[in-house]
Design a protein that fits this description.
The complex is a heterotrimer of chains A (about 525), B (about 625) and C (about 100). Chain A has 21 helices and two strands. Chain A is mainly α. In chain A, strand 1 and strand 2 form a beta hairpin. The longest helix of chain A has about 35 residues. Chain A is globular and about 75 Å long. In chain B, the strands form two sheets. Chain B has a two-stranded antiparallel sheet with strand order 1-2. A two-stranded antiparallel sheet of chain B has the order 3-4. Classes of the chains: A mainly alpha (about 525), B mainly alpha (about 625), C mainly alpha (about 100). Chains in contact: A-B, B-C. The interface between B and C is medium-sized, with 13 and 15 residues.
Chain lengths: ~525, ~625, ~100
């Protein structure tokens, strides 16, 4: 029941927020904040009791809720919560609050409708993180989309129509593949056992071995990779992130990208272990391409928001690398990267939005020397630029380094290539700081620095970054059991079909290996 | 008392936090108190901890303290924990002691600056990071400090952020060192993948067990760690950032780019000496890199106009000596030179800073001169520093440390003769460029007269450092001159003793010493001949065509900058020039195709009802016709 | 024979209506032509119904009758609006929906 509450609170608060617009100026904002705070609190309570659940014999789920829906087709209202979804739900509720704080001054028209859409999208996201019936999952997957589209199309910046169409087309195309995959799986289940089923546990038992499994895995991979996004399916991202209003950018980069990541971890990898073991090097290669390609393009941008958007592609590349490395360490790092990236990218978009609100431009060529004028924005930007370049002691470092440590064991060469991304991250992060905040000051058109509340919000995120950077245990220990199971389900590529690319095996065999040409 | 250890890095951190969060509301006095006080207290605690450590020393050679578990997941356990032994205590003492003096100096030096609180906040953060680096018990925490000092170096080089060139220098420093850091990180990946541990002590024991000497994996790891050290310590081929880093305020150059951070590479190699011992070829490379850097940098130092750039090149050159010493297995000699170098180089930078300060931010040595009379105390301290750097025999610390290195380069089985000759040439060049500075700045005619003399807060650190620049050398005296080995005994529990080829007795050592002494004195004498006379010989030399070409080549740092610019920077800029994304254009053209198809189809949408009716009728007929068939 | 005659008549009526619809520009006349086509269809239904001896044809006729009545009332409303807006009944003038 608690699980349904988590989903329904934002969904039900959504129309309320719409109506709230008539009552007072800020009613919609407060309703949204209230709903999300309750969600955050609930998730927090669940988390603090996590260890008790673990011993209560719910199988792999900490909490489960199962109700029949359309038994004829094997569809049921099946929700399940484990460490992975719990962490991501906490992130969702937190970033939702951040998104609302970020749009406090920016959104001034149709305030009620805006928050209605935010809440609907967040409700969908939480649903995605909880649903373990694939039909239900797809339902929530689509629930997120339309409000997101509206958020961009109605409140976006210059190119909002173009961007929102692009977003919609790309994500719908991905969804279509996903839908085909889901239905095909259900039908395959019917072939095997005589009745169709959309249930996660049933489908896990299919263990597809033939070519069919390979193609379905590909559909599941592409469907989720579009959301992530991984090249070559990323083309919607820069336009969308740039055109979206700040709050929506925070949700897009901080949460929607995570739904794709979650889908990969929850469905793609465990449902097709055999196909994955062959596909993993390709996926990791895509991750590396993502890291480098995103970083190179980030360096080329003059629009500060586009720069942040491309940096997001680069960061999600680390996730992709870790997720398919097949070692527990890399998977743990990948999840950590999700959380850390959500926090840092959310803050960076807030800062880019704050600059745009003050300067009415996002073009870094027209900025410069802002440190003196807006020291709060500048110092926070410095902090989060450092976070995004992976400075040790902050959360992103933990994510990136665990991924690299873990991936090195299975794909050393790819990992070394990925490490080059660390240098590139420095280049684009510092270039952003240099162009916007250092150097000579252009004509001053700035009214005010960050308000206390906005500064406080950013400080809170910064504190979380430091906390998770120096003490990542809360996240890591919550997700460890899940990742452990995942590794056992889908052993790393190198152990199965193909002989491993042995870069540096233990020295004894290495020396003999070298001596024998 | 040893338990107070964790306070040492925590106090500067607290200072940083206080200044970063509330610095804007403090008065300058309060800022100075917080900034200096935190480091001063840390230095005091270091003294207490050090005394306690030395009291129990021979029985207990290390102290271990874990604060909390940093990462504990899936087979990786890394703690935030400190490891104190003789080596790290030495580093901590230098960092906090010299750090405090430089902070004190900055109180006056930076007093006119708007970013007073920001400056002290960054400096405190730097000390925290540096202490973390040297006290870290595992390589990941060391990496945290490693990146942290790099960050502070970046922030402080670009401290005067309104100047775009300073910002460029800061970025250059961060990016170039990050290249080394990334190699270092890859080294950590290999170490962890192979040995399942990141603890410094454990890794080395395991590596010594698992890898035979000279095995490929040991070589690869050592090379990668060396790349990190080379980046941080501004050695070939990643040395290009250090001269530009002089854009920062002078106390920053003294603390970060002379005394502490740039020697982190030396610390890393000394710390991981067991690992490097497994890769003799890499050790040889360390020596060669050190030798090349020390010669190249010394030549560049000869022709610079900017007083701080001269000192920057001299720093590279002196660190080259340390690398050379490490490479020939003279571990404790390298650290002894580190100790003396931090004293005399910090002194030189601070004295140069007081010159710059008095002349109203004039850094060109060709516009200085005759300052001997106007700034007597600065002159004398600078002279002591320069004497120590060039190794004036018997009375300066630099003589003893450099002599030790050269003796090891002669007598170590890991060394070669040509390494020794190169290093000997280096001593000549050192004398030459050190005294070129002295003669240019303090002798000759007065070109710019100072407006005011430095105050107490700047003079006290100068005097204290000058004292140490002389006396610290007496900790270790060679066999021929008193035979005192306090320093090498102190480090003997951490670092292996220096090996010597049999047959190297005291008479050989004396001969080597005489050679070194002569070479250094020759350099100084040459400087006097070249630069002291009114119609300077050096100017005439520089006027010849060969002199001009050579000077321009050396001034540009042997063309490394230009080479990197052509090979790396330009292609990179070309790659990232602003342009639409190719893939994106592909997708967009899909949209354009759909749109043009739509335009073509929509021509049939005339808006005339009768046209629609006609098309419906025709369509129906066609369908009927099709069915009929 | 009767059926054939009725169907031929229906076809003729339908074509007449179609030609009227296509050639007339006055929207009222177009409506009239439309009614003629509807009636042609009804006639065809009735002919069919009588040929097979089934009531369905008549029932369809009743449906078409009501449909035509409803259609005419809506159409006349639209015509009124159009003439009010455009001050003309020329169908070719109403090409706002041109693509």
């Amino acid at each position: 029941m608690v699980l349904w509450l988590l989903i329904l609170i934002p969904l039900l608060a959504a129309p309320l927020a719409w109506m709230g617009q008539q009552w007072s100026r800020h009613a919609a904002r407060w309703i949204a904040i209230g709903a999300l705070s309750i969600d955050l609190l609930l998730a927090f309570l669940l988390w603090s009791q996590g260890h008790r659940f673990q011993n209560s014999g719910h199988g792999s789920w900490l909490l489960e809720s199962h109700t029949s829906w359309i038994p004829l087709w094997g569809i049921s209202l099946h929700l399940g919560l484990d460490g992975l979804s719990l962490v991501l739900i906490l992130l969702t509720a937190f970033l939702g609050l951040i998104a609302i704080a970020a749009s406090w001054t920016e959104i001034q028209v149709r305030v009620g409708f805006f928050h209605c859409n935010v809440l609907l999208a967040l409700g969908g996201v939480i649903g995605v993180f909880l649903a373990i019936d694939l039909f239900l999952f797809f339902f929530f997957w689509e629930v997120m989309l339309v409000p997101m589209y509206l958020l961009i199309a109605v409140w976006g910046h210059e190119q909002r129509r173009h961007a929102s169409f692009k977003f919609f087309l790309f994500t719908q195309a991905g969804s279509l593949l996903l839908l085909v995959g889901i239905i095909a799986l259900a039908l395959l289940h019917q072939q095997v056992s005589g009745r169709p089923s959309f249930d996660y546990a049933d489908l896990m038992g299919l263990a597809l071995k033939n070519e069919m499994g390979w193609w379905l895995m590909l559909a599941f991979f592409i469907g989720f990779a579009v959301k992530l996004p991984a090249p070559p399916f990323h083309a919607w991202l820069p336009d969308t992130y740039t055109a979206a209003p700040t709050g929506a950018s925070v949700i897009l980069a901080g949460l929607l990208a995570k739904t794709g990541a979650y889908g990969l971890l929850r469905f793609t990898i465990p449902l097709f272990p055999d196909a994955i073991s062959e596909f993993a090097p390709i996926a990791m290669g895509l991750g590396v391409i993502s890291i480098l390609y995103g970083a190179v393009l980030a360096c080329a941008q003059t629009d500060i928001k586009r720069l942040v958007a491309y940096s997001s592609i680069s960061h999600m590349g680390f996730f992709l690398l870790g997720a398919f490395a097949g070692t527990e360490l890399a998977l743990q790092g990948a999840v950590m990267q999700l959380v850390a990236h959500g926090l840092s990218i959310g803050a960076l978009f807030m800062l880019a939005g704050a600059l745009q609100e003050r300067l009415h431009t996002r073009d870094m060529r027209q900025m410069g020397g802002l440190w003196g004028a807006v020291p709060r924005v500048a110092s926070m930007a410095m902090f989060f630029a450092l976070a995004s370049l992976g400075l040790p002691g902050l959360a992103n470092f933990i994510g990136e380094f665990l991924v690299l440590f873990g991936s090195f064991a299975s794909q050393p060469f790819l990992t070394i290539l990925a490490s080059i991304g660390m240098v590139m991250a420095v280049i684009y992060s510092l270039a952003m700081m240099q162009r916007a905040f250092f150097g000579r000051q252009h004509e001053i058109r700035i009214e005010a620095d960050l308000s206390n509340s906005a500064f406080g919000t950013l400080l809170l995120i910064a504190a979380l970054q430091v906390l998770l950077g120096l003490y990542p245990r809360p996240v890591l220990s919550t997700t460890m059991p899940v990742m452990g199971t995942l590794v056992r389900l889908a052993p790393p590529s190198s152990h199965l079909t193909r002989p491993p690319v042995k870069f540096l095996p233990s020295s004894n065999s290495f020396t003999s290996h070298v001596s024998a040409p | 008392m040893l338990r107070l250890l964790s306070l040492i890095p925590t106090l500067p951190l607290a200072g940083f936090l206080v200044l970063a969060l509330f610095g804007g509301r403090f008065s300058r006095r309060q800022i100075a108190w917080v900034g200096c006080g935190s480091i001063g207290t840390a230095a005091l605690i270091t003294a207490l901890v050090g005394a306690d450590f030395l009291r129990v020393f021979p029985d207990r050679t290390s102290y271990h303290q874990t604060l909390w578990t940093w990462i504990d997941t899936s087979g990786m356990t890394v703690g935030v924990s400190w490891y104190l032994d003789a080596l790290s205590l030495l580093m901590v003492a230098v960092v906090t002691g010299i750090g405090f003096l430089i902070h004190l100096y900055s109180v006056e030096y930076m007093s006119g600056d708007d970013g007073y609180a920001r400056f002290f906040a960054y400096m405190n953060l730097f000390v925290t990071a540096m202490l973390t680096l040297v006290l870290a018990d595992n390589l990941l925490l060391l990496y945290l400090g490693w990146e942290g000092v790099g960050l502070c170096s970046y922030l402080l080089i670009g401290f005067w952020y309104r100047e775009p060139e300073y910002g460029a220098a800061a970025q250059k420093a961060f990016i170039v060192t990050r290249i080394g850091d990334t190699a270092f990180a890859v080294g950590l990946f290999i170490l962890f993948t192979q040995l399942k541990s990141l603890s410094i002590q454990q890794v080395q024991t395991l590596a010594a067990d698992a890898w035979p000497v000279g095995s490929n994996v040991a070589v690869i790891v050592a090379v990668l760690l060396l790349a990190g050290a080379v980046g941080k310590s501004a050695q070939l081929p990643l040395q290009v950032w250090l001269p530009d880093a002089m854009a920062g305020p002078t106390p920053v150059s003294a603390l970060i780019h002379a005394a502490t951070m740039v020697t982190a590479g030396v610390y890393l190699i000394a710390r991981m000496h067991q690992l490097f011992a497994l890769a003799p070829t890499v050790l040889e490379a360390v020596a060669v890199i050190g030798l090349l850097t020390l010669l190249l940098a010394a030549c560049s130092a000869l022709v610079q106009r900017d007083i701080k750039r001269v000192l920057a090149y001299s720093t590279m050159s002196q660190i080259g000596y340390m690398f050379l010493a490490l490479g020939v297995g003279a571990w404790s000699a390298a650290l002894f030179h580190f100790l003396t170098h931090s004293c005399f180089k910090a002194l030189l930078f601070l004295a140069a800073g007081s010159v710059i300060h008095s002349l109203g931010h004039e850094q060109d040595i060709f516009r200085m001169g005759g300052l001997r009379r106007q700034l007597p105390l600065t002159f004398w301290t600078f002279l002591i520093g320069a004497a120590a750097m060039s190794g004036v025999p018997f009375i300066t610390s630099g003589f003893y440390s450099k002599d030790w290195i050269l003796w090891s380069a002669w007598s170590s089985p890991l060394s070669h003769r040509w390494i020794w000759f190169g290093a000997l040439l280096g001593t000549l060049l050192t004398g030459l460029y050190s005294f070129r500075l002295i003669f240019r700045v303090f002798f000759g005619e007065v070109r710019t007269s100072p407006n005011g003399t430095p105050g107490v807060a700047m003079l006290v650190p100068l005097v204290v450092l000058a004292f140490f620049a002389v006396t610290v050398g007496f900790l270790e005296l060679p066999r021929t001159l008193g035979d005192l080995s306090l320093f090498s005994q102190y480090l003997s529990h951490v670092l292996p003793p220096i090996e010597t080829i049999p047959g190297m007795d005291e008479s050989v050592e004396a001969l080597v010493q005489i050679a070194v002494t002569c070479s250094a004195l020759l350099g100084m004498g040459l400087a006097a001949v070249l630069f002291l006379p009114r119609a300077s010989v050096a100017d005439r030399l520089a006027g010849t065509s060969l002199g001009r070409t050579l000077a321009a080549f050396w001034q540009g740092g042997w063309g490394f900058d230009r080479m990197y610019d052509g090979v790396l920077v330009r292609p990179w800029l070309h790659l990232t020039r602003e342009s639409g994304e190719l893939l994106d254009r592909g997708y967009e053209s899909l949209g354009v195709a759909a749109e043009s198809f739509h335009v073509w189809l929509s021509r049939t949408q005339t808006g005339h009802v009768r046209w629609y009716a006609a098309t419906v009728a025709v369509g129906a007929l066609v369908l009927l016709g099709l069915f009929a068939m | 024979m009767l059926t054939t005659h009725a169907l031929v008549l229906a076809i003729m009526l339908f074509c007449l209506g179609l030609v009227g619809l296509l050639s007339r520009r006055n929207i009222l006349y177009m409506l009239l032509s439309l009614e003629i086509m509807l009636n042609a269809a009804s006639l065809a239904f009735i002919a069919g119904g009588s040929r097979w001896g089934q009531a369905d044809g008549e029932i369809m006729f009743l449906f078409i009758l009501t449909l035509a009545a409803a259609e005419v009332s809506v159409a006349l409303g639209i015509v009124l609006q159009l003439s009010y807006r455009f001050q003309t009944l020329d169908a070719d003038a109403f090409n706002e929906m041109k693509g």
